[in-house]
Amino acid sequence: MSERTKLGILIVLGVILAAVLFYAVRGASPAAVVAAGKSAEYKPLAIVNPALHLDRIERLRKLDYRPTGRDILSSSLPPPPAPKKEVRRDVGPMPPPPPPPLVVPFKFYGYTADAASKRRRAFFTNGEDVFIAAEGETVQGKFRVLTIGNTWAEVEEISSNRRAKLNMEGPPSGAPGESPQL
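Above: the chain sequence. Below: its structure as tokens.
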């Protein structure tokens, strides 16, 4: 390619560039034409008092946002709220309190078994008084011995049919037959 051809191409490109720049600066763009066409329809807002309503802004600042749990980007409705369970209160009279635990005035501290009849007899103590009773017999006229186990005895108060289980305790200190601790 000769120097003359290169120079011709350069001149043609320069003319094209000058024409584009001329129309860009002097000519009207399509956006300007659209904006100019709508300017005749524009009406400004009628604002009576342009001051800020600070009381309304403060009220909005104090507003506590509570989310509903709904996804704002989803068009589906949230699930319905769970039904509230009704608290039911009986207004009738209160039931009587349970009876106090049975207090037995004596302690169970041993038993013996008859080898021939296989019958057990329990030893009970109330201070220095000692009572011996078999199953089914009464102690002090108020308590019936129901069952005698190896480490416990079950007694029943005759008047109220309340039961108590007595665990075996050692004989009272200083009782005859007690061996001294070494």
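The mean pLDDT is 82.
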